[in-house]
């Protein structure tokens, strides 16, 4: 259900009036300047309780007030610009702080440039905020004017120009989905904030490193007076984080959103953590990557392409880490589910993953005679998995090859090419020319054979010190 909330305005029409008064040029509400009236209306709302007034409305009024003060100074031809610069600076600082502080939900502080990028705000606003807060000199008036205009544009694009400015009458399912996605992204960002703790205390969560000795084994016990300042130990923080992500992961509908959030906010150490602690996470990630790859090759925009713009980056950062972290024993027992997912979404990325897993299996099986064969059943499962993988790779190799990797890189150009106007009369010749150019680009140019020269000993050579002829 949609919960009721308190607003300082009585009807949505009042908010629509503010929109017309603040942005008369964009809404076409007439030549009369109503900005002063809009600021007075916002001050009236503040008197009812500033906690009920949205930050974007308050910031719009403060920035507009600074602009009006600047226009008044110019009209009176006053030379005192300090008050104007102070007004601009304070309004912009409050604008940036009010946008970024609520998104600072991590255990450790996330850089403001990162938070600004996530909300679509230009990073130079963060620099301007730092300048106005910490530097001895205020920013120049021209820079402040430009920043104020851009801030009002941002507020228009992200708030005032929303068609659903009135109270949203969304269904309870949509509201719950939105809350769940926000909770998932918040958890992912929290994990990114404790990356250093995860790396330093890998023994806490990595089952393969249970006997690993960390520097925590050598820490000296502190006095009780000092311990009261330590809120929680790294191991407790990690265990609490793992419990929270497991609680979300157990809910079946959340898994797709969870994997998409992992790709969007990719972290290699979090990938290892999720693969170690979340059941069937590898399978869900494989399905998501395979589907996103298909969509991207077909010209659709995906979060996978946004995070990994080219094939080499995708392979180096995500796929290789995925293959190296897979539990081969678990893969052997769950191969039926993997095979059905692969058959449903065959592509070159699936072929590459299977070939890489097979290569790792070869290395593992070659080491089996050197080990004590206590786990004979597990070794037999790995050998059987190797056979099934080889058969699957044979089938996929008939449909895909290494040249298909270029499709992932070239897919970003499909949207721009599709918007170019085409002449229907010469369509056939254009297609043939494009195919010829593409074939020429994909084929490797032949390099001329170079003569191989060998080093020969110089006859009658005598060593001499430097500087002597």
TrEMBL record:
GO biological process, one term: cleavage in ITS2 between 5.8S rRNA and LSU-rRNA of tricistronic rRNA transcript (SSU-rRNA, 5.8S rRNA, LSU-rRNA)
GO cellular component labels: Las1 complex; nucleolus; preribosome, large subunit precursor
GO molecular function: RNA endonuclease activity
Top-level taxon in the UniProt lineage: Eukaryota
Classification via Pfam families: Las1 (PF04031)
Cited PANTHER family: RIBOSOMAL BIOGENESIS PROTEIN LAS1L
Protein's name according to its UniProt entry: Las1p
């Amino acid at each position: 259900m949609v919960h009721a909330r308190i607003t300082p305005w009585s009807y949505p029409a009042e908010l629509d009036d503010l929109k017309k008064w603040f942005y008369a040029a964009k809404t076409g509400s007439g030549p009369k300047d109503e900005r002063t009236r809009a600021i007075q209306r916002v001050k009236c709302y503040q008197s009812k309780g500033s906690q009920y007034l949205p930050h974007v409305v308050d910031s719009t009024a403060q920035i507009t007030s600074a602009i009006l003060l600047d226009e008044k100074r110019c009209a009176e031809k006053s030379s005192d610009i300090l008050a104007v610069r102070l007004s601009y600076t304070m309004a912009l600082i409050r604008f940036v702080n009010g946008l970024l502080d609520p998104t600072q939900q991590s255990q450790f502080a996330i850089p403001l440039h990162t938070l600004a990028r996530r909300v679509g705000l230009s990073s130079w606003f963060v620099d301007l905020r730092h300048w106005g807060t910490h530097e001895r000199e205020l920013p120049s008036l021209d820079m402040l004017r430009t920043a104020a205009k851009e801030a009002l544009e941002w507020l228009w694009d992200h708030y005032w120009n929303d068609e659903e400015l009135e109270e949203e009458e969304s269904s309870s399912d949509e509201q719950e989905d939105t809350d769940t996605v926000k909770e998932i992204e918040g958890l992912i960002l929290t994990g990114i904030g404790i990356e250093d703790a995860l790396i330093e205390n890998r023994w806490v969560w990595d089952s393969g490193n249970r006997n690993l000795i960390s520097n925590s084994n050598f820490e000296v016990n502190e006095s009780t007076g000092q311990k009261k300042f330590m809120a929680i130990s790294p191991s407790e923080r990690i265990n609490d984080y793992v419990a929270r992500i497991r609680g979300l992961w157990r809910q079946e509908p959340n898994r797709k959103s969870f994997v998409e959030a992992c790709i969007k906010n990719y972290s290699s150490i979090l990938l290892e953590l999720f693969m170690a602690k979340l059941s069937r996470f590898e399978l869900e990630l494989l399905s998501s990557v395979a589907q996103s790859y298909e969509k991207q090759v077909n010209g659709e925009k995906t979060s996978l392409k946004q995070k990994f713009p080219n094939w080499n980056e995708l392979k180096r950062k995500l796929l290789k880490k995925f293959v190296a972290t897979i539990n081969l024993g678990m893969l052997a027992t769950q191969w039926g589910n993997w095979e059905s997912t692969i058959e449903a979404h065959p592509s070159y990325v699936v072929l590459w993953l299977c070939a890489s897993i097979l290569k790792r299996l070869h290395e593992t099986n070659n080491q089996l005679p050197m080990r004590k064969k206590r786990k004979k059943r597990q070794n037999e499962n790995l050998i059987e998995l190797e056979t099934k993988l080889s058969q699957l790779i044979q089938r996929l190799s008939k449909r895909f090859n290494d040249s298909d990797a270029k499709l992932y890189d070239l897919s970003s150009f499909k949207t721009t090419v599709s918007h170019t106007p085409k002449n229907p009369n010469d369509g056939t010749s254009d297609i043939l020319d494009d195919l010829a150019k593409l074939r020429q680009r994909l084929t490797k140019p032949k390099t001329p054979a170079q003569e191989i020269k060998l080093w020969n000993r110089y006859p009658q050579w005598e060593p001499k010190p430097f500087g002597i002829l």
